[in-house]
Automatic annotation (TrEMBL):
Keyword Chaperone appears in the UniProt entry: no
UniProt keyword Amino-acid biosynthesis, yes or no: no
Cellular component terms (Gene Ontology): cell leading edge
Any one of the GO BP annotations: positive regulation of establishment of T cell polarity
Keywords: Guanine-nucleotide releasing factor
InterPro entries listed in its UniProt record: DOCK (IPR026791), DOCK_C_lobe_A (IPR043161), DOCK_C_lobe_C (IPR043162), DOCKER_dom (IPR027357), DOCKER_Lobe_A (IPR046769), DOCKER_Lobe_B (IPR046770), DOCKER_Lobe_C (IPR046773)
Pfam families, A to Z: DHR-2_Lobe_A (PF06920), DHR-2_Lobe_B (PF20422), DHR-2_Lobe_C (PF20421)
Organism: Pomatostomus ruficeps
Protein name: DOCK8 protein
Family recorded in the similarity comment: Belongs to the DOCK family.
Length: 314
């Protein structure tokens, strides 16, 4: 704001009461949007102003709204819906400036891949003509040389919020894991001979981490990707990740309050059922049958053994 602009400082919001009014509106909107934790942050600014004015009527109202917000956090717990994220890449000269741009889209919580795919295909189909738009079905890196120059290609991949281990210490609650996030990850399985899936001993995985320009939730529902990093996991690392995941699922199922026998039954069948040939037994036979010849693999070998120790304990 430039102070010499006429009337800028005499508007009704440019006062203490105006500020309080705007903040109260913000708190209401956060509450409607289900972001109850932020309601508390907004009222932290409002309460000292009301206290200074000894406005006890408004303070009563404010505290009752805060109580409502905290009750909602306790009662809704994990049932809250924060959104589903997709990476969308645009390829083809038809897109103009959008060509080779990547975005992360935030969709309502239970959006499935076919829904967003159908919507974007329909939208760009109207722009360029239905025959000119094609959705790339896999999440492998796109080779532009193999694409038809007269078509517009859209690649859509489901992505999940990604955090480093040190970040997880601060992101304890379900809300914290879904608020103020700007890094996302998707994984692409592959084998050295080009097939996506193979035997355990030849199954590699590519983890791609995308960083967006701003953090979600944001005023827009799609944000540009400004950085991407890729990590290749070797077959034994893929096995370690899978075992950790199974152990986490078991831990969650056994510690659930109140206990859920059906859930536990499903997790147990998934993790120790003999019908699954890629289950823990197979992993142990492939990777732990003998000590690896390559000293570089000792660390992974030990890690996997520790994973099994934890798994068996669970």
């Amino acid at each position: 704001l430039s102070p010499d602009e006429d009337g800028i400082c005499s508007g009704r919001y440019f006062s203490e009461s105006g500020l309080v009014e705007l903040l109260e509106q913000a708190a209401e909107l956060f509450s409607t949007g289900g972001l109850y934790e932020t309601v508390n942050e907004v009222y932290k600014i409002v309460i000292p102003i009301l206290e200074a004015h000894r406005d006890f009527r408004k303070l009563t109202l404010t505290h009752s709204k805060l109580q409502k917000a905290f009750d909602s956090i306790i009662n809704k717990g994990q049932k809250r819906m924060f959104g589903t994220y997709f990476r969308v890449g645009f390829y083809g000269s038809k897109f103009g400036d959008l060509d080779e741009q990547e975005f992360v889209y935030k969709e309502p919580a239970i959006t499935k891949l076919p829904e967003i795919s159908h919507r974007l295909e329909g939208f760009y189909g109207q722009c360029f003509g239905e025959d000119a738009v094609e959705v790339i079905k896999d999440s492998a890196p796109v080779d532009k040389r193999k694409l038809d120059p007269n078509k517009a290609y859209i690649q859509i991949t489901f992505v999940e919020p990604y955090f480093d281990e040190y970040e997880m210490k601060d992101r304890v609650t379900y809300f914290e894991k879904n608020f103020n996030i700007c890094r996302f990850m998707y994984t692409t399985p592959f084998t050295m001979d080009g097939r996506p899936r193979g035997e355990l001993s030849e199954q590699y995985k590519r983890n791609t981490i995308l960083t967006t320009m701003h953090a979600f939730p944001y005023i827009k529902t799609r944000i540009n990707v400004i950085q991407r990093e890729e990590f290749i996991l070797t077959p034994i690392e893929v096995a370690i990740e899978d075992m950790r995941k199974k152990t986490q699922e078991l831990t969650a199922a056994t510690n659930q309050e109140p206990p859920d026998a059906k859930m536990l039954q499903m997790v147990l069948q998934g993790s120790v059922g003999a019908t699954v040939n890629q289950g823990p037994l197979e992993v142990a036979q492939v990777f732990l049958a003998e000590i690896p010849a390559d000293p570089k693999l000792y660390r992974h070998h030990n890690k996997l053994r520790l994973c099994f120790k934890e798994f068996i304990m669970r």
